[in-house]
Specification:
Blueprint: H1 3-7, E1 14-23, E2 26-36, E3 41-45, H2 52-59, E4 67-72, E5 75-76, H3 82-88, E6 90-93, H4 105-112, H5 121-134, H6 136-140, H7 151-165, E7 169-173, H8 181-196, E8 200-204, H9 208-214, E9 217-222, E10 225-230, H10 232-236, H11 239-246
Helix pairs in contact: 4-7, 5-7
């Protein structure tokens, strides 16, 4: 999606306006605004401490915002409980995977379907088949405890749990962190495939080049503010961004 495509679109699935979050007297987000449209991969880039994870946590109600608005599918969700936001269709795959290490791969996926599994078993089986098609190595390990998987496989499981839950937008926080380069490539290829299948994705990622390569649009945070925004091509043509993040 290029810039003109975006300008011609209306009704973003997610519209954030003047979002402010503080930790005590320290302002972590100083009034950031951005939009995500259906079917996009939108990346939030920036150095450590820029406010990337804080942004996702504020969107999903994990952190309380001090001001601004977050409109999801046309409804302001600021102040709504995290579980209600999940039910509305915003699915957060947090930094550090956070799977259940003592449960098998299959059990982890079943827990992720708690919103509907008892009343719609067929939907669960369909989504489980979908994630096993995306990540065949998880199917091979369906009876293996999550804690015995490699870091990359745990990240695959974390993403799969989000997809099994369902929803309209998937928030991925640092999917490349602590993972072998070969598996990072596999995971990013799969993120592109997930988006090609119609899923909207918001990606927080320190590996700026890889994120830009798969994103429709990017926002760069610096000390809690949006310093730059544009398509991946525009980002790569910006000398200050290249020097700061792609050097």
């Amino acid at each position: 999606m290029n810039m003109s495509d975006r300008e011609n679109k209306t009704n973003p699935i997610l519209k954030v306006s003047d979002l402010r979050v503080s930790y005590g007297k320290i302002a972590a987000l100083k009034g950031i605004s951005f939009e995500v449209y259906k079917g996009e991969i939108v990346s939030i880039l920036g150095a450590n401490g820029a406010g990337k994870t804080t942004t996702l946590n504020a969107l999903t109600g994990v952190l309380r915002a001090q001001g601004g608005s977050v409109e999801f599918k046309g409804k302001d969700i600021l102040g709504i409980a995290t579980d209600k936001i999940t039910e509305m269709g915003m699915i957060h795959v947090p930094e550090g995977r956070r799977i259940f290490p003592g449960l098998t791969v299959g059990e982890n996926l079943r827990v992720a379907a708690y919103l509907y599994e008892n009343r719609d078993r067929a939907r669960f089986e369909e989504r489980k088949a979908y994630v096993f098609d995306l990540f065949p190595r998880l199917k091979e390990r369906i009876n293996q405890p999550g804690g015995t998987l490699s870091g990359g496989e745990q990240q695959m499981l974390a993403i799969s749990r989000g997809l099994v839950t369902g929803g309209d937008i998937l928030l991925l926080d640092e999917p490349s962190m602590g993972i072998a380069p070969k598996l990072v490539l596999e995971i990013f290829d799969t993120i592109q495939q997930i988006a090609a299948n119609g899923q909207t994705i918001m990606l927080v990622e320190q590996n700026a080049m890889m994120a830009m390569d798969i994103s429709s649009y990017c926002y760069v945070l610096e000390t809690g503010e949006v310093a730059h925004e544009g398509t991946s091509d525009q980002m790569k043509e910006n000398d200050s961004i290249v020097q700061a993040y792609l050097g």
